Amino acid sequence: MMVNLKINNIDVTVPENTTILDAAKANNIAIPTLCYYPDLRINSDCRICSVEIVGKKGLSTSCSTLVTEGMQVKTHTPRVINARKTITELLLANHDADCTACAKNMNCELQKLANVLGIDENRFARVLEVRPIDDHNPSLIRNSNRCIKCGRCIDVCRNIQGVNVLEAMNRGHDILISPPFGKYLSDEFCTFCGQCSSVCPVGAIIEKDETATVWNALHDPQKHVIVQVAPAIRVSLGEELGQKPGTIVTGKLVAALKLLGFTKVFDTDFTADLTIIEEGSELIKRITTGGVLPMTTSCCPGWINFAETYYPEILDHISSCKSPQQMFGALAKTYYAQKENIDPASIFVVSIMPCTAKKYEAKRSEMGSTENNLDVDVVLTTREAGKMLRQMGVEFENLSEMEFDKPFGTTTGAAAIFGTTGGVMEAALRTVYEIVNKKPLAVLDFVEVRGMKGIKEASVDLGGKTVKVAVAHTLANAKIIAEQIKNHESPYAFIEVMCCPGGCIGGGGQPYGTISKTRTDRLASLYAVDVAMPLRKSHENPDINKLYSDFLGSPLAKLSHELLHTKYQPKRRH
């Protein structure tokens, strides 16, 4: 059923149950918002989107008010504009407005709103009570002095991730968004997924910026600085530099990183292929020898943090494989060092990842030969990589494409789809099926595990036995999977779990403004990369096979186990 109304005296027809905000958007009428975010629950907290409805006494929030037949809406009357300006000025009065020192300068929704409303001078006195900054973890910085109490971080942590690390304490002017009792994020066993930083409209929660550390390394003649690039980055970095969501920028990305000064630019897809060989072999071993099942993937550090904290009982179900990021770091300081005759101590490994939890993962004591010799030295998010390219003045659009360096440059389509929910599972099934059944797949695409459904299921024939598998993304869905395993009710043999919505394409370190449509565009692009690759199965990667013959020996062998596998430990909860 359609509803007819007027917005600013313009006749508008929209489906019933449409909000005024969406009706205005559909007709190219912009209503400013602040607490509103398309993928989150609407709370109408800030009231910036208020409008006048003819015949109604007070102002109404357009983000939560549904259209009705014959409604007449005014979006920019003097009364409405004055209300928006007043609300914005009050927010600014209780806000650290040192914009040039903020990571979100020029990308801040409050800053943009103040500009749109023409606020050059605040009518209200500054009342900010300066609070300490929480930087007690490797991944995220929480600055309450920049918080505008919009509630987005609470909503994504509670309703998308199901973790409930953040909450609103006190009332009125004294409201504080924080872990309970003002604790640090690390005190509350935050998984460091970074979804809070992704949806924050200001600079209240951001990733821990390590760009200066990388610049210093690049300018140190004693360091051999190499970089690895995660699968999802090739379809998201373009957005950070002004291109359309999902734009595939692989070749330009390599060229840009060369301009920054990296000695070698490698593809994490290589060790994604390697992960499939090791993880697939582990799965086959567990199935054929009566090992612990179901087995879950281990490449997502947010999922690992979640399991260690909330479900330590299921840790034996998690694959012992390190993530592709960490496998790369381990090989860079052993195989690559030997191959190139370089002192491992001089090799400085940088990762560009879509994920803030990867920063935490790289600092884990399990991820290196010693605490002072970790596999990966620094992890940059997509946003940090974009920042460095802007600092360098790289004209990304005009770059000629280049290829990844060897020996970690030959990859497959199976590795490329690691960046999306279901991709690890599909890559694994392509390999495990052919190894077990000793025949090629008739169709490579496992469409059952694709898409944005929270939990997906599929079945595959392995040696005449039907094996059920599942894919879950977001921690709220991971909790469902974990409960099944904990209660011995899981019907699956193999489960892929990704912490963030959509998997790595929706990671907490991806460009700001990531929403469902953005994730879908990136997902489609990764599958396009897969289809275009000459090799689409990990076990057919010739350089992976050479790595085994020249260095590792065989999957799950002594050296591969030493370098590529680990074990996770329960975390005590206070």
List keywords for this structure.
alpha/beta; Ubiquitin-like (UB roll); Alpha-Beta Plaits; 3 domains; 19 strands
Concise summary:
This protein is α/β, with parallel strands linked by helices. The chain is built from 19 helices and 19 strands.
Structure description:
It is a single chain. The chain folds into three domains: 2-76, Ubiquitin-like (UB roll) (Roll), CATH 3.10.20; 91-207, Alpha-Beta Plaits (2-Layer Sandwich), CATH 3.30.70.20; 212-564, Rossmann fold, CATH 3.40.50.1780. It contains 19 helices and 19 strands. The protein has helices at 20-26, 78-93, 109-116, 152-160, 195-199, 211-218, 237-240, 250-260, 269-289, 301-310, 324-340, 357-363, 382-392, 413-416, 423-437, 475-486, 516-532, 542-552, 558-564; strands spanning 2-7, 10-15, 50-53, 60-61, 72-74, 140-142, 167-169, 176-178, 205-207, 224-229, 264-267, 295-296, 347-353, 368-370, 373-374, 378-381, 455-462, 465-473, 494-498. Strands 2-1-5-3-4 form a five-stranded mixed sheet, sandwiched between helices. It has a four-stranded parallel sheet with strand order 11-10-13-16, sandwiched between helices. The protein has a four-stranded mixed sheet with strand order 12-19-18-17. α9 (269-289) crosses α11 (324-340) and α9 (269-289) crosses α15 (423-437). The N and C termini lie far apart (53 Å). The model has no long low-confidence stretch (mean pLDDT 96).
